[in-house]
Amino acid sequence: MTNNLYTQKILILDFGSQYTQLIARRVREAKVYCEIHPFNMRLETIEGFSPKGIILSGGPASIYDEGAPFADRGILELNVPVLGICYGMQYLTRLLGGEVGRSGDREYGNATIAIEDDRDLFHGLESGEGRSVWMSHGDRIDRMPEGFVVLARSKNSPVAAMADITRTRFGVQFHPEVAHTPDGSKILRNFLFRICGCRPSWSMTSFVHGTVKTLREDIGDDRVICGLSGGVDSSVTAVLLHQAIGGQLSCILVDNGLLRRGEAGEVVEIFQEHYGMDLHLVDASEHFLKHLEGVTDPEEKRKIIGREFISIFEMKAKELGSAKYLAQGTLYPDVIESVSFKGPSATIKSHHNVGGLPEVMNLELIEPLRELFKDEVRQVGVELGLPRELVMRQPFPGPGLAVRILGEITRERLEILRSADAIVIEEIKIAGLYEKVWQSFAVLLPIRTVGVMGDERTYENVIAVRIVDSLDAMTADWSKVPCEVLGRISNRIINSVKGVNRVVYDISSKPPSTIEWE
Ligand code: XMP
Question: Which of 61, 81, 91, 375 could form a disulfide with 53 if both were Cys (CB 3.0 to 4.6 A apart)?
């Protein structure tokens, strides 16, 4: 799919820093479109990309390491401004004949710089001592390349920032992209607007207009199939396509019997009744439960659910007639993860929920969100008029409640878990925490414990409550939810969910635990 929306682009070459995605976030927050590509992107491809500026990211290597990542030096002949950050600055220095040396001490964490020149990169920031920045480096610039001047110094870095102003080449030793550098966004905006001459034109409104137009042109009269789960990504994908091609889109919602309470019904209500989409709900709960009978191994459960999803989806799609495309809600972090630093040869991460579908069905893929970050997708959802509840929905795993019932999945256990889960979500919403935490849910443990109710001794199930804070699900911490909220959740579950007499709170972080229990 092509899209001419992206006319003013910044190219970020990734040297492997853990902060590279943050650079992209900051650039896009400034309403400038950017893409991250591996450091070894071919020069012709860069020329074709036609960036208004290039940012060289940081990275874990030392410029002196064997096999240290180097970009094509031709980027300096392209006549576009370049900003090197940390390793990117050291690389620039080496490339241009300056000298990089080892710092006596590795500088890591908060540092202060003194700005000496506030004309370009530091425009609007007063010169002088005491500006906080975030440093993370072992090497430093000992001698700048010819033509460069010092823009800022720190105690451990005589050259904390430098520039060859006539050739618009800049380098900063610190990380302007992280929140610990309070003026970082200002510095990056100076690069984008003053130095590269970009205009703030990337917005979700323009994204929607541009994407709808190109989808329409590219798809023509062909038909598109889209799997809808009710999650944010597939919902936004479907609505965007519906705007573009209306009745040429058919959506399939497979109810695998492992969804949360009321979920399938809500999806039908929104998409079929509100948007008037051609949505086909396939109630396959019996089918899935039958295939999961007696299965207790987590991986086995996942495999069965993935395989059966594909077979049911494929059957329904065939029944609906010939489609040329399959739409998927792949997001930018998945794309970067698969092609970034490791280079284009790294294996593409298969999508959790629909893994394998495109290959099996021999359809061409449409991924209208593949340039967007999650919060941008949410903005698009708002732009398209999707209900806030859906747009802000917490992530839910493809295999659904199957990975939250430890051991065998039975209809009775599913009912218990659904009731308990609905209480967790409701209480978290009442406490105003639903959009603050990353996920909040219930897990049913396959053990029974003794309790007492009235004069009766009980012997019932245990529910574990899992509530975590996270930014990207790669790491997570158990959420310090007020005790009163936990107390209410526990009381309500024990009092109203038949079959549960004990509730525990999961206080494990990821790593070493995972967010889901299976
Ligand atoms: P873990 O349990 O690995 O989960 O810490 C990280 C995030 O991924 C979600 N998750 C899944 N999502 N299919 C999905 O679509 C899956 O099989 C799956 N397993 C875990 C999980 O909810 C959390 O947000």
Answer: 81
In this predicted structure, the answer to whether residue 137 has a pLDDT above a threshold of 80 is: no
Cβ of 353 less than 6 Å from ligand 1: yes
End-to-end CA distance of the chain: 37
Establish whether 314 is a catalytic residue.
Answer: no
CB of 169 within 8 A of CB of 92?
yes
Q: Do both 233 and 381 map to the same domain?
A: yes
Q: pLDDT tens digits, residue range 30-50?
A: 999 999 999 999 999 999 999
The mean pLDDT of 498-510, rounded to a whole number, is 97
Is 287 labeled as catalytic in the residue annotation? no
Ligand 1 contact via 374 beta carbon (within 6 Å): no
Alpha-carbon distance 96 to 99, whole Å? 9
* Host domain of residue 163: 9-195
Cβ atoms of 249 and 237 closer than 8 Å: no
265 lies in the same domain as 359: yes
CATH number of domain containing 439:
3.30.300.10
Residue with the smallest CA separation from ligand 1 atom 22 is 397
Instruction: Name which residue leads in pLDDT, 127 or 376.
Output: 376
Gap from CA of 399 to ligand 1 centroid (Å): 9
86 annotated active-site: yes
Q: Is 353 helix (H, G, I), strand (E, B) or coil?
A: coil
Residue that terminates a domain, selected from 358, 390, 422? 390
Q: If you count DSSP H runs as helices and E runs as strands, how many of each does the chain have, helices first?
A: 15, 18
pTM flag (> 0.70): yes
* Same domain, residue pair 485 and 422: yes
Compute the distance from residue 516 Cα to the ligand 1 centre, in Å. 6
Question: Given this model, what pLDDT does residue 296 score?
Answer: 97
* Residue nearest ligand 1's atom 10 by CA: 397
Convert 29-46 into a string of H (helix), E (strand) and C (coil).
HCCCEEEEEECCCCHHHH
Q: Do the domain assignments include residue 380?
A: yes
Residue 510 lies in a domain: no
What separation in Å is there between the alpha carbon of 403 and the centre of ligand 1?
9
Establish if 402 belongs to a structural domain. Answer: no
Cβ of 426 below 6 Å from ligand 1: no
Query: pLDDT tens, 186-210?
Result: 999 999 999 999 999 999 999 999 9
Q: Which atom of ligand 1 is found nearest the CA of 396?
A: 22
Q: What's the CA-to-centroid distance between 223 and ligand 1, angstroms?
A: 31
